[in-house]
Amino acid sequence: NYQDGFKYSEGEEREWTQTLDWQINDNHEMVSGLTLERFHSIPKTVDLSRPFNPNRSVNDQGLFYANTNDQIPVNIFDVNYHNAGVYAQFKSRWQGELTSVLGARYDKSSNYGSTFNPRLGLIYQLRNDLTLKLMHGEAYLAPSAFQSYQHFGSFSSQREDGLYQSFFFHLPNENLKPEEITTTEWLADWRASDSLNLTLSIYHQQLDNLITERATP
User: pTM of the full predicted structure?
Assistant: First the structure.
């Protein structure tokens, strides 16, 4: 009972990035930058009865979900959004063998709002062959258009009350937020010999807004 099926997707990104490296003096340096991004995406469609026509808009395709007697138009998303990000990181070498790293990044997206992610690191050279590090940082991973908007499935029949019925659909979720992770780590690095290096790492991670699939009624 196989039938012809077609899918279509399209993606475009334009990005402008500016970075600045500044050696303030022998002991202090800074790295900073600015990023501007624009995205356009037509996420992967459901199975289509005929090929998508890229010369027409998504609302002018004349496509319908299978087994609906041309009653339910196929939902095709056309997504446009932009993001602006700025970051800076300072690295300093203090008296003795102590080095510090302090940084932060701020992003503002028209799609999912704003995020602020700091990072901090302390590095201590206890001996020539032994280095201790204490690091803390936060990061995020924005959901892709594919994760937020992909959907697939089909209708199987029409009920007596006129409603079309499906036994399976993967539904889109336009309200997905970025995954966020916070990590704290203590690390010891020992150069035991020219041919042997040993590292011990103890860390704690917390992950919020994990994106996963789940069943719904």
Answer: 0.80
> In the numeric block, which tokens belong to residue 182?
């916070």
DSSP E strands: which ranges in the chain?
Answer: 10-23, 28-42, 79-93, 98-109, 113-127, 130-141, 152-154, 157-158, 164-165, 168-170, 179-193, 196-208
**CA 134 – CA 82 distance, rounded (Å):** 35
Q: Compute the distance between CA of residue 98 and CA of residue 88 in angstroms, rounded to an integer.
A: 20
DSSP-assigned letters across all residues of 71-91: -SB-----EEEEEEEEEEEEE
pLDDT one-digit tens code per residue, 124-147: 998 889 999 999 999 999 998 889
CA distance 61 to 79: 16
The Cα–Cα gap between 109 and 105 comes to 13
